[in-house]
Predict the 3D structure of the following.
Amino acid sequence: MKRYDAIIIGTGQAGPTLASRLAASGMSTAIVERGLFGGTCVNTGCTPTKTLVASARVAYMARRAAEYGVDIEGPVRVDLKRVMMRKNDVVGRSNKGVEKWLRSTENVDVYTGHARFEGPHTVRVNDDVLTADRIYINVGTRASVPPIPGVEKANVLTNADMLKLESVPEHLVIVGGSYIGLEFGQMFRGFGSQVTIVEMQPRLISREDPDVSQAVQGILESEGINVRTDAECITVDSQDGQVIVGVSCDEEPNAVKGTHLLIATGRKPNSDDLGLDKAGIELDARGYITVNDELETSVKGVWALGDVNGQGAFTHTAYNDHEIVADNLLNGDSRRVSDRIPVYALYVDPPLARIGMSETEARESGRRVQMATRSMTRVSRAVEKGETQGFMKILIDADSKEILGFSIVGTGGDEVAHMVLNVMAAKAPYTVIQRTVQIHPTVSELIPTMLGDLKPLEASQ
């Protein structure tokens, strides 16, 4: 048995930096990885998909070249093998960099293999048995394929499978109208596929406000993507090398034929093969590890970080998890998950970014709320770039003047949102933005103008 001060299981966004910080403080640290270093973001999430999004955007803009007075001879062709080679190069540099960093960090021992608990503070990796007073679980999630009738008959693709394609699908059918489905849908439309997105809910990205969903759907449809919502009778079949997705019990057409099928309906935690029962670590009904506000599990001295704890499904929330536990342990802080402001982006083009409350949540909050909106057609920078799709919306507490929420569907929205986020984090009044001189021409400069149009938001009835 080998004793350490800390054991970290998984090398996603929380694990490596936590290992580095613990080791730098003098703690002997073991970190375990059973697959590729870097976790979901580096290998099958952010890094590869955003690299592919960049290639798809180049193809999209090349097709629009004439609008900008630029002539390109012949049709735009996408060589998916070369696109994937570029992606693989970016991913390879990232995951190899994480592994090299960990293996060269003093006070850190790296183990490769499957970690399983043998007790509350004992972990086996192959023939090695490790023990520590502090254990951090950072094992992430994986794609989940629901029991759709007939799904076993088709060659179903997940997000990870999409990253291995070597030719552009003729017709890609996507079941799931949220983040993964929409990003891959627009991406492969840019590569030249016919794309149909099938969603059970009445609208895409149903967690967002209706106007946001409508704006994103409008962007996708303007590029020729077919969207089928209210698909309450989804079934799958395979015939003559094609996949047939049933989308309705009565409405015509009641089926969609395609050459490839991506299932993008959700993810499940990698908590089912860690021996957590032997440690007494509790799970919720969906299999996520239950944690308190400081990310400690039901077992004292064991924490769960990143997607596996169900407290966030993003790289930035996983990284913030490491900051919470490290600062609480090493700096005597009292940081909590409940202190952070919800913030995320959907990387369709142009992107969606949202911070804090939605309009729906604000209406239900019981507060006196003011709201203002601005179409991107009224933003000079967007007009100059020829990218006027979308809008932005801000929500203000009428009494405290603090910002409650912000949404933007528009060019540069993922970067613009941070200006609002930082003011929210400082709990400063919105007038700080309104009275600050902004650079022209930018998208951000229209936020103060928008704030001049605040109007009362009626509470939901």
Observations:
- The longest helix spans residues 80-103.
- The two ends are 62 Å apart (CA to CA).
